[in-house]
Amino acid sequence: MKQLEIDVEKPPFDAALINLKGILNTVTVVELESLVQKEFLRLDKYYFIFNLSGITSISSAGAGFFIKLLSTVGEHKGVILFTQLSEQSKEMFNLLGLSAVLNITPDTKTAKNIMERILQGEIIKGLKS
């Protein structure tokens, strides 16, 4: 069994919904980083929804990936939404103080709705860049 399963959905709008399941650590983050770079960033796609409900463990390297990606996406006026954070993800993000700067939604449906509104050019009050 793989340590990290990555399932990419492409909703009917120009964003990626990336469902993660397993362990996000120094070893597994390499695969995720490669996929995001190859499939999205190289194609100038900067809108992501990360579903972290299946994450059983996240290391500082995993959190570091998201910090780096937030910076890259922000430079290109994109948006990252996080949804359904597992308890382990919540703990790590709280420990690192990231919860205050991340766009976190309670469920995938809400995240898709918000992302669709962003892509339609609506202004979302309170959205963190």
Please tell me about this protein's structure.
- The protein is of the alpha/beta class and 129 residues long.
- It has one domain: Transcription Regulator spoIIAA (2-Layer Sandwich), CATH 3.30.750.
- Helix content is 37%, strand content 27%.
- It has four helices and five strands.
- It has helices at 29-39, 60-75, 87-95, 108-119; strands at residues 4-9, 16-24, 47-58, 79-83, 103-105.
- It has a five-stranded mixed sheet with strand order 1-2-3-4-5, with helices on both faces.
- The longest helix is centred in the middle third of the chain and has 16 residues, at 60-75.
- The chain is globular, with a radius of gyration of 14 Å.
- The N and C termini lie far apart (36 Å).
- The mean pLDDT is 91.
The gist of it:
This protein has 129 residues and is of the alpha/beta class. The chain contains four helices and five strands. It has one domain: 2-Layer Sandwich (Transcription Regulator spoIIAA).
